[in-house]
Each structure stands twice: as structure tokens, then as C-alpha cells.
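Reopening this one. Same input as before:
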Amino acid sequence: MAFESFDALADAATGHGSLSAAALAREMLDSGEPPEAIRARMNYILKTMREGIDEGRSGRALSRSGRVGGDAARLERSSHELLGPQFGRALSASLAVAEVNAAMGRVVAAPTGGASGVLPGVLVTVAEQIGASDEAIVDALLTAAAVGGVIAARASLAGAAGGCQAEIGSAAAMAAAAAVEMAGGSAEAAGHAASFALQGLLGLVCDPIGGLVEVPCVARNATGAAVALAAVEMALAGMTFPVPFDEVVDAASAVGRSLPEDLRETGRGGLAATPAARKMAAERTLVP
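Same output, byte for byte:
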């Protein structure tokens, strides 16, 4: 699914009928596999994402440091739903998968393990809200993969190279574009959604406390999902972002290169440098 620009992806979508159809055609060309085999792999990915949501929401996914686990279950049980139950469910699903990742469980890198909760949290919840079929979610996953491929081609998906904007920011852009298409939006609207999401997280630093993908990484999956949902709502309402998505990605690439090394996954800057974080890292113990 190696489109080097969103413009190229959108052009292909014009010929194939949708972003997901264009992504499927490119994957067939690149892999030599028939569509049935590719969709079967995507169905397996969807199954794994749902298993992660269920495991995290159960409260059983606890990290060995003892710092992460149980929050997805707490949020799922919460009655303090100011913005409605579906928003809370999207956040809990995103936290759930991120907690499973922190507990060394099986997740889908979407696009990375540390950002693995955003895409399933958004897509599964939006699908529940609009009554979308599993086949429609698979189409959305194809779209998300193509958008992620554009980001990988033009920038980076690694926190060590571009900060957390490269991970959570990319995941939010992928989720926003995919959810817009799943909800019936055009390829153009999906591009605007991706732009809204990524620009909202531009400059996000990668600052894992103690070097572990736990704090603040897990919570950022929920906030990334919230940004993606905001982008979806804006794009479906007809709002447009004046900077094309390809240029937003290029800007993210430039910002990532300009970030100091301390803010790129080294655990030396940002929140990781606060007194509370240093105390947490010094006192870290692993639970059996």
C-alpha cells in the first residue's frame, strides 16, 4: 500500500471508487495476493484488535511495573459520561489496547505498539455507532493502512525519529481518515480529517517515564482517539483544513527532525524529566 502521497491515493480512489478499493488494488499489486487473502488478513487484524479491547476492558492487563492497568475497565464502568456513552467507549477501547501492549500482550502495531489503541478505539466504536459491518471495518483498515503508508513514505512512524507525533499523531490521522470513509464521507473529506488530526498533534514529544511505553504513552492513546474523533466530526460537517494532508505530513517531518534528542523517546526530557517521573523511575519495581 505504498502510496507516496495522499494526492496519489485520492487519484487512485477516483478510478477505483474509494480509498479502500484503491488501497486493496495496490496491495494486490505489491503482494501478488488475491483480494480474498488480503481481506482475510485484515479480518484477522480486526479480530486481534477486538481481543485487545476485551482483554484491556477486563482489567486483567497489568504491566510488570505496576504503573499501568485497570484504567480502561474503570472508564468503561464510569457513569460520568459528560459527552455520551460512545465517546467514553472509544476512550476505554483505546486505553484497553494500549494497556494490553504495556502488559506485553498481543496487539496490532497501528502504526506502532505504543500507538496501537487509537485505531481500534475509533473504528470499532464508530462502527458500533453507525451499525457498520465487519466488511466495512475491514475497508476502513485498508484505508488506514494506506494513509499510514503515505506518512511512512514522507516522514516517520517512529517516536525515536519524530517524537510522539509520529506515533499517536499518525495513528490519529489514520483513524480519522478511515472513520470518515466508513461513515460515508468522500476521499476529499477523509484527507481533511487526516489533516485536522495530525495538525492537532503536531510537535507532540515522546517522553516515556523510565523508558517504558507506559506513562504517558497509554493515556495518549485515549487523547489521540479524542483528537481523531474531533477531526471526523469536523470533516463530516464539511469543514476543510487549508493545508493539504501531504504538506501537513511534510511539516510533521520537519518538526520531528527539529525536536531535541531528549524529546524523542530517550526518556530524558518532557514529562520524563519531572521530579515525580524521576522518583517513579527510581522506585520502579516489577511485580511477579
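So the earlier flakiness isn't reproducible anymore. For the record, The radius of gyration is 18 Å.
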